[in-house]
């Protein structure tokens, strides 16, 4: 049954979040899909390269734009904000973010797909050619991005925002992006379970930090996520790096040295009063041990500022606090 875009049922509003709040504030209730939302990526017919995607004209008339804007719900805006923040998000991940408050997972999934299909018809969101989990997964296999109307809505709300170029990302980039979204969802699950209070989560580029270099130029530190949590009486800050074993160990150590250079600049502590713990989530034990050993033997790095863990250890680390 096709959803009437101008009229949403009470069930459609379950789990909606206010406009303007961080994505992490949505849906305090749990979701059984959190942590496994990205699934396996299905190869697209095109080569694994970042190339412009085929799409309809990006031109959007003012009358049509205002018509779409007029009937978007608060949850629609929250979904758009989530996709804009992470660039690419799967159907299952959006379901976990914004549709976890339904009576059953099946009803939540059904409403999620209906809402996303409406947003796609209105060109608020679009889907990539590459899918997650294969064609047999149907609409659950889609990977969503901001489409032309959604981009115009966002740029109208933020005049300094630049037009987003639509493209089909490489497999490597997409896998990493979806893994970062899963990490965000892991933090959100902790909040919904009452183990921590999730104050803030920033994805790229909002989590980037700019600071002056030695030669007078500006350097940008690019982490995957920045998060602020409260556990007990303490507030903790975290820079999070999601490793998929695609970079060499020297490159990981070099990234740690970038964090050390930023720490020594004093910019973060001047702004926040504390320097965040740097968390590396790494799948294999051998790779974790190698990075820990490299950090410990590097005289220029403070090993107490780093935590190297398996992805499934993030909850225990964050709920236990940074100390």
Short description:
With 323 residues, this protein is an alpha+beta fold. 38% of the residues lie in helices and 18% in strands.
Account of the protein in words:
There is one protein chain. With 323 residues, the chain is of the alpha+beta class. It folds into 2 domains: 11-170, no CATH class; 195-320, Trna Endonuclease, Chain: A, domain 1. Helix content is 38%, strand content 18%. A hairpin with a 2-residue loop joins strand 11 (225-231) and strand 12 (234-242). The chain is globular, with a radius of gyration of 20 Å. Residues 26-35 have a biased composition (Polar residues). Residues 1-40 are annotated as: Disordered. This is Replication-relaxation.
Summary keywords:
323 residues, alpha+beta, Trna Endonuclease, Chain: A, domain 1, 2 domains, 10 helices
What topology does this entry show?
Elements: E1 41-42, E2 51-52, H1 62-71, H2 74-86, E3 89-90, H3 91-98, H4 105-121, E4 125-127, E5 131-132, E6 143-146, H5 148-157, E7 167-168, H6 171-192, E8 197-203, E9 209-212, E10 218-221, E11 225-231, E12 234-242, H7 249-265, H8 267-272, E13 277-281, H9 285-297, E14 306-309, H10 314-320
Parallel strand pairs: 12-13, 13-14
Antiparallel strand pairs: 1-5, 2-7, 3-6, 4-6, 8-11, 9-10, 11-12
